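Worked example 2:
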Amino acid sequence: MSYLTPAEFVTKMIDAGESKLLMSTRDTLIRAYMAGAILALAAAFAVTITVNTGNPLVGALLFPVGFVMLYLLGFDLLTGVFTLAPLAVIDKRPGATWRAVLRNWWLVFWGNFAGALTVALFMAIIVTYGFSEAPNAVGQKLGVIGESRTLGYAEHGGAGMLTLFIRGVMCNWMVSTGVVAAMMSTSVPGKVIAMWMPILVFFYMGFEHSIVNMFLFPSGLMLGGHFTLADYLLWNEIPTVIGNLVGGLTFVGATLYATHHKTAPKRSPLGAPAGTPWLRRVFEAPHRTHSE
């Protein structure tokens, strides 16, 4: 497994951000749609495993298969472009502007949402035999998830909103680490192993991922969950998107860029001769006495 140094893969991060800003509208939407759909299918897979085994850890262990597939296929999640796209502007790449960043985020958001919504509809049909009977155990679980992660936050008011936001921040700290991890190796096994670890952490810890929620909550509404569209938007999706933006850009993108691409000069070892010109001038200047 060929490992790239941090300085090397951070350059790849900036290159990726630039590429996404210059991508055509058609390709941006197609790649975002497929990313949302595959991640939604992985979420449905994980919920099914959890229901059938009664062990959430098993579902969390296997959920990353969807994330791995979509990134190996070159598709884009909103959580990933939150981290990568701004780096091209910060690095002053040609054609990279904040307007282009916002355009990319807008297109990827709607592409992800459309893909996740498609799978939500498909799963609702599957677990109800085309809406001809009550949801099965998996469908019932999807409805409960939607209720607990909207009304559950709302019951705590401002404290609930803060908790939701922090879960969004921590989610994309891990998810964007997974995005970056794919660039740490030039081999497929290396990429898979590196991506798997942070995605497992985020899913098992119950952090809030805006694209996963684009599947969970619409499917819950279709399956009779006792919450509203307004509950979903106000008490989950919007705060989660903001938290994902903050977590990915600050804890992953900006920090890696600052320390591995714009590395500060090294400090002089203790006891070594002063290394800066002004210090040399001070120490080498002739000493004058007061009588002079």
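The chain has one domain: 6-284. The longest helix spans residues 229-261.
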